[in-house]
Amino acid sequence: MAVVEVDNLRYRYPRQTTLALDGISFTAEAGEFIGIVGPNLSGKSTLCHALIGLVPHFYKGAIGGRVVVAGLDVHATPVAEMSRRVGLVFQNPFTQITGAKLTVYEEVAFGLEYTGVPREEMVPRIEEALRLLGLWELRDRSPFALSGGQMQRLAIASVLAMKPQVLVLDEPTSQLDPSGTREVFEAVAALCRQGITVIMAEHKIELLAEHADRLLVLHQGRLVADGTPRDVLSRAVRGELENEPAPAPPVTEAAAALGWTMPEGGFPVTLDEAVAVGRAVMAGDSGADSR
Amino acid sequence: MSTVIEARNVHFHYTPGVPVLTDVTLSIGPGATAIIGQNGAGKSTFVRLLNGLLKPVSGTILVNGVDTRTQTVASLARTVGLVFQNPSDQLFKSRVIDEVMFGPLNLGFSRDEAEARAREALAQVGLQGVETRNPYDLGLAERKLVTIASVLAMGTSVIILDEPTIAQDHAGVRRLGAIVDELAAAGRTVITITHDMNFVARHFRRVVVFGQGRVLADGDAASVFSRPDILHQTGLEAPQITRLAQALALGETPLTVEQFVDLVRRRLSGSA
Amino acid sequence: MRVSLYVPADTWLHRLDPMTKLLMAAAGVALTFVLARIESGAVLWAIFFTVLGTGRVLRQAGSVFAGVGIIAATFLIVQGLVHPTNATPLIILGPVVFYKEGLLIGLRLALRLYNILSATLVLVLATNPADLTEALVRRGAPARLGYVIMSVLQIIPTMVAQSAAIADAQRSRGMETEGSLWVRVKAFLPLMGPLVTSSLIATEERALALEVRGFGSSARPTFLKPEVRPPHAGLVRIMCVLTLAAGVAGRLLLGW
Ligand SMILES: Nc1ncnc2c1ncn2[C@@H]1O[C@H](COP(=O)(O)OP(=O)(O)OP(=O)(O)O)[C@@H](O)[C@H]1O
Ligand SMILES: Nc1ncnc2c1ncn2[C@@H]1O[C@H](COP(=O)(O)OP(=O)(O)O)[C@@H](O)[C@H]1O
Ligand SMILES: [Mg+2]
Ligand SMILES: [Mg+2]
Q: Which residue, A147, B228, C7, C32, is most buried by CB atoms nearer than 10 A?
């Protein structure tokens, strides 16, 4: 059964003339990892906010269509209630700190306290989230005495600890170092295997290609592609998506330039796939056209 | 190479007992220099020392030979322009155009000149038609571009960009890359902190790796990216295309897709 | 950036539970209004001084007291000059005459101001705002009310942090903010507008951050830290009640 159901969602911010979201429809199953890609202003953040109800409850404006997440009709449910089942990591980590707590450790506890998680359960969950994001050593620091990347890690840890049924992340790794980014993607993929549904807007296409089950491509508020990374990125690299809303990973671009294709069709989209295809070509025992 | 910025045995901490920078010695001259390294390595702290907002606990920072301790931040700003990592730390005017004109006005340009410079800088970063908007009504990506434009408009000889590609899409990153190239070609000193290794590989001649408050490596991009030991130790990785070449044992270190494709074609025709 | 005026430390005052400190503050404020004489106001202030001093927050309190000094001085000057009961000239500075009656009234007002301030500072400086909010929410106060209290406690520190950030942004782009007093005043004025705006934005963003973390949801909150009431809290509570009672009795019977 679909955990996220978005049906013909249309939304306009107050005092705007154009639609920020224009007829978006998709569903997501339990345990699915969906990547949202698209250029700036295409509506990624707006869509993320619509999944927890900040759009329209907080931003107001005009909305149409239906959004059901984790069994709750988002348009009829207050954000605070939604947040018990849906976690949102904002694009800007600096604005995500509650300011209500004095230490990193307590900051992570905040969401657990207000969603009523029993105390015995809180402690292990907080520790797990902090260790996962590499913040355990910093647990007694003030949340404001952190570097940008550390603050972003804290924002993610605070939401992961809440163990939401649906996890929405808006460019969560924009300020993380490469290994931090990889760890976040791996952690999120592990959550999917436990049945959590993940929706992540990201520009880091290489990592989405590796971990996401599906990619949604937005352009000017419209959903212009929805499919597996292989399918979407192969189309993107062939220039089949209008206005080039999505870049392809470097290995896919290289493969396309060299005509390296996967045996089952389409171009390699991850490093491992490209290595496999490349090794075969370089060894000279493949039918791939190397021009 | 002439030296514009020089750090000599710089030590720094925010809280005594928790060192953030340890004995950093580095000189940087004109051209594009990237600073990379783990979260919390001390990169942003280092650049705040360069524009005088922070002063070393011990050691010295010289900008064009002058100790930053002897100058106010405002007077250093004539030489060093710094774009902060967090746009909210930098934006304080209620209209984009005023924000971008603020620096040039302080440098003594007339209103007309300042406005012309501001419009030019906004166009350079690809922001048009937002002049009268409030920066806080813009998305994070555009806000970041406003902060970059406000420093570009000042025309300082040293430009420091702290994670300029945050939240930028593909086209935005390309445009920023072009700006870096252009500034470097014009002989300006461009120092950029970033976690985007493709961006580093494409646009920076020199790469400095920070780790736990020290300089761990310093060299051209190809040499840094062919040191897996350093990269691993500091949580970094080479650009994806470089890693592909390494996995295929192609023997060279291509940094861009074009270089990789070219290399493969040479190898294939060589072996054919 | 700090977003709290709270000064962490480990003193008897810090170890007290927030409700006891709330009681202390409330008793203090009540007493300020109960007590009429200048001497009794001074005694009360002396008590607060001891409390703040042994709680090791006197230095921070001192800067607040100094900041409010202007208001206190205004009380003295205005009342000393123009209060209707003024009759006995006390200080004569050329054409300016300060009268004893007015000065005493001004002094009483100033003491009252300082006493209320001290009572609040016991809460603000020596109580973790999160703990205070938590203690109230535990007792069934709506989370929203907790939020309002928290925001109020954060207004000043947020403004301080924001103004430091803005000043850094301004000097990084060539505006002189260092140097003589005049330079700093000149730099401070244009800061006021942005300060209000950015504080409002920060508050709004914070509201969002709280909301998505379940703040204000219908779930019954649980708490990370168990509530501890230290052994000396009972004694302090009794002292507060006794002092208040003594104050009321003294006022009624002896005209304190
Ligand atoms: N205001 C502050 N007070 C105390 N410690 C701080 C403060 N700002 C940063 N730090 C600490 O100093 C260290 C270096 O921080 P800095 O911001 O320079 O890191 P960075 O290399 O820029 O990291 P990132 O890639 O995450 O932006 C970190 O351990 C951080 O927690
Ligand atoms: N708070 C807001 N008020 C008005 N318009 C907004 C607001 N936030 C976003 N928009 C507009 O909505 C559209 C989608 O923006 P956004 O969701 O932020 O895109 P993305 O996250 O893909 O960059 C853009 O046209 C943008 O200008
Ligand atoms: Mg966005
Ligand atoms: Mg930084």
A: C32
